[in-house]
Amino acid sequence: MVNKVRVTIAGVQYAIATTDSEKYIAQLADKLDKDIGKLMEKNPSLPMARAAVFCAMDYLDEYRKSAGSVENMRSQIQDYIADAARAKTAEDKARAENESLRREVTALREQLARARARAEKAEKAEKAEKAAQEEASAQPED
User: Fold this and answer.
1) What is the pTM of this model?
2) How far is CA 105 from CA 102, 109, 116, 118, 135, in A?
3) What percent of the chain lies above the pLDDT cut of 90?
4) Among candidates 50, 6, 45, which has minimal Cα distance to 29?
5) How far apart are CA 72 and CA 75, in angstroms?
6) pLDDT beyond 80 at 141
């Protein structure tokens, strides 16, 4: 909805048609009125139209610098997003590798346990065989 807002800038009343709030337009008009007033106070012979042009130039300068800062921030944010995506991919890869290594460690532990059990069994069998040989050699021959 279009609102008509009445404001006074540098002693001149204006009716502004806008979709912005009356409070917002009043704040803008107040800033412009103060800025023009400061320029005219410093330079009493400066016409109001020139003071308005100087304010417009100043506002455009601020706008362009702000727009450049915004673009720089957008670029940085995009870089951060790309870095975060790369970090997420690296994390996922590391997690997958970690899980694979855990499974491998578990399998190796099971193999080691089986190998130890076989070694113990072989050692017991060897001891039993040695004991049987010693017993057989210790018995007198008839």
Assistant:
1) 0.56
2) 5, 6, 16, 20, 44
3) 89
4) 6
5) 5
6) no
Nearest to 20 by CA among 4, 36, 43: 4
Token code pair at residue 17 = 């048609």
> Amino acid identity of 67?
A
The tokens of 30 are what? 């107040």
Question: How far is 13 from 22, CA to CA, in rounded Å?
Answer: 15
Go through the chain and tell me how many residues it has.
Answer: 142
pLDDT tens readout for residues 58-81: 999 999 999 999 999 999 999 999
- Helix, strand and coil percent figures for the chain, each rounded to 5: 80, 10, 10
Tokens matching residue 46: 């400066």
Q: State the DSSP code for 10.
A: T
Helix, strand or coil, per DSSP, at residue 90 = helix
